[in-house]
Amino acid sequence: MEVLQQFRLIFGSLRQHFRLVEERCGLSGSQMWVLQEVERHPGIGISDLAIRMGIHQSTCSLLVDKLVAQECLTKTRHHGDQRRVGLRLAPKGISALSLLPGPAEGILPDALSRLPSVVLKTLHINLDELIVHLPGKDQSCVGMPLAEMVRRSGEEGA
Predict the structure, then answer these.
(1) pTM score, whole prediction
(2) Residue 80 maps to which CATH number?
(3) H or E stretch including 76?
(4) Alpha-carbon radius of gyration of the chain
(5) Does the pLDDT of residue 2 top 50, yes or no?
(6) Of all helices (H) and strands (E), which one includes residue 36?
(7) Predicted confidence band at 158 (pLDDT cuts at 50, 70, 90)?
(8) How confident is the model over 55-111, as pLDDT tens digits?
(9) 153 pLDDT exceeds 60?
(10) Are 14 and 107 a contacting pair, CB within 8 Å?
(11) Summary mean pLDDT of the chain
(12) Does any domain span residue 96?
């Protein structure tokens, strides 16, 4: 029961963080993460952005297109290769980032990055063992940002 309560605490904390991000910034946690990565790496392409975020390229492209439509990002063609598109923050994106209440990637990736490597490796091994016993594994979730998963679960429960 204690381990189950730990999962509940983690999930509830994620929901609370992403809800706060959306309330303050007016954008989803996933969208804010995109903006933060573009701020860190001006001119980044969608493929590299997807790799940095650990999400599928098509998911990343959809997030970027929404942010471009909301005038938070701009797309620019690279001079050397017109097929390559680089991303830059627009004023609305800069403004949204200034309101960010914590790590855009979410509190879980941030917390995981702070763990000593031996603890992280042990956690990985133990979670792998748990997943072996988990019926109905949904592999499609692997490339989805946590903010979107938490958001969808909130919509389904409402």
Answers:
(1) 0.82
(2) 1.10.10.10
(3) strand 73-77
(4) 17
(5) yes
(6) helix 29-40
(7) very low
(8) 889 999 999 999 999 999 999 876 666 667 899 999 999 999 999 998 888 899 899
(9) yes
(10) yes
(11) 89
(12) yes
Determine, yes or no, domain membership for 157.
no
Q: Using alpha carbons, list the distances in angstroms from residue 17 to 5, 25, 28, 52, 115.
A: 18, 12, 11, 21, 20
Within a 13 Å sphere around the CA of 127, how many CA atoms are in the beta-carbon half?
A: 7
> DSSP per residue over 57-70, as a string?
HHHHHHHHHHHHHT
Q: How far from the centroid of its chain's Cα atoms is residue 154's Cα?
A: 16
14 token code pair? 């994620």
Is-contact 151 28, C-beta < 8 A?
yes
Largest CA distance in the chain: 58
Cα(17)–Cα(134) distance, rounded to whole angstroms?
A: 27
Q: Which range of residues forms the domain containing residue 131?
A: 2-152
Is 98 domain-assigned?
yes
**DSSP per-residue codes, 62-131:** HHHHHHHHTTSEEEEE-SS-TT-EEEEE-HHHHHHHHT--S-TT-HHHHHHHTS-HHHHHHHHHHHHHHH
Contact status, residue 106 vs residue 17, Cβ threshold 8 Å: yes
What stretch of H or E contains 88?
A: strand 85-89
Mean pLDDT calculated for residue range 38-53: 94
Domain annotation covers residue 158: no
Token pair, residue 144, equals 């989805």
- The number of distinct structural domains making up the chain is 1
